[in-house]
Design a protein that fits this description.
By secondary structure, the protein is an all-beta fold. About 0% of the residues lie in helices and about 55% in strands.
Length: about 280
């Protein structure tokens, strides 16, 4: 908003008296807001954005173009984009009523043209973008993207931005392997449980990571390790030799955070998951 001040002068009998100073603001005919419908992101997530345009003027605002920079930033003097527009996702509302799809150029940046805002009315543009490999997945990662509104009727571009932060949480998955796969009676087998953490935060005891399994056939003479070190039964796991039910104690397993590397040539991030490996060996 543009702020202005004004002061009057009163003259009489060779005397001058000044008035108080008045202050006012000139509000733009068109204002814009931008909102992300989520506060955090992970690689590959879909983020819904809402761009709202309000016309506070006395006439229709027509032939507007909205350009979204998709969070672009320069990497090694080249632009990279942490967001990618999902084609066909645009929705265009005028005073709450859905309109025909506007003209969309889905590149980077994203360009939406042919927008009109009636006198005293509002427009909402709703669209979806996917998080790309150029978005930092680290704990301090952020995506800030800006929509810029231009048009012949505007004396200056109108902008609105939205910022979301990288999600700070573990992201775990588990795989199970058997060795050997073909075994006779009274022989030993080993189950290997590999827990991967693709998140930027390590698990702690309070996260209560637990593995449960029911071994069939039932195993005897159990030996358990975590990352190659023996995991004693006391305080770490339970096992019922009559049912084959196995469970680690909540908090006995912790998994380190992933590590992230930004390619020095392309700017894309890659992830090396944190890992915890638990083995359970026993005799059939």
């Amino acid at each position: 908003m543009l702020t202005f001040t004004n002061q009057a002068t009163l003259s009489y009998r060779n005397r001058v008296q000044r008035s108080n100073v008045t202050t006012g603001q000139i509000t733009d005919a068109l204002t814009a807001q931008k909102q992300a419908l989520t506060e955090s992101y992970q690689p590959g997530d879909y983020i819904t954005y809402v761009v709202s345009l309000m016309n506070n003027g006395t006439g229709d605002v027509t032939a507007l173009t909205v350009t979204d920079d998709l969070g672009g930033y320069d990497f090694e003097d080249q632009p990279v984009y942490p967001l990618s527009y999902v084609e066909g996702s645009i929705r265009y509302f005028v005073d709450g009523v859905q309109q025909a799809e506007p003209t969309v150029t889905p590149g980077a940046p994203l360009v939406i043209s042919g927008i009109q805002v009636p006198t005293g009315g509002n427009v909402q543009l709703i669209y979806v973008a996917q998080v790309t490999d150029y978005a930092s997945p680290e704990e301090d990662g952020v995506i800030t993207n800006t929509a810029t509104v231009t048009g012949n009727i505007l004396t200056a571009p109108v902008t609105a931005s939205a910022t979301i932060n990288a999600q700070t949480a573990p992201e775990l998955s588990i795989t199970k392997a058997l060795n050997p796969q073909n075994v006779g009676a009274d022989r030993q087998i080993t189950y290997t449980f590999t827990i991967e953490n693709r998140g930027n935060t390590a698990t702690v005891a309070g996260d209560n990571v637990v593995i449960t399994d029911t071994f069939d056939p039932i195993l005897s003479n159990l030996a358990v390790t975590m990352d190659g070190s023996p995991l004693p039964k006391a305080d770490n796991y339970t096992y019922d030799e009559t049912t084959g039910a196995f469970a680690t104690v909540p908090g006995a397993i912790t998994v380190p955070a992933a590590t992230f590397t930004q390619d020095p040539n392309t700017g894309a991030y890659t992830v090396e998951p944190g890992e915890a490996v638990i083995t359970v060996s026993g005799t059939i």
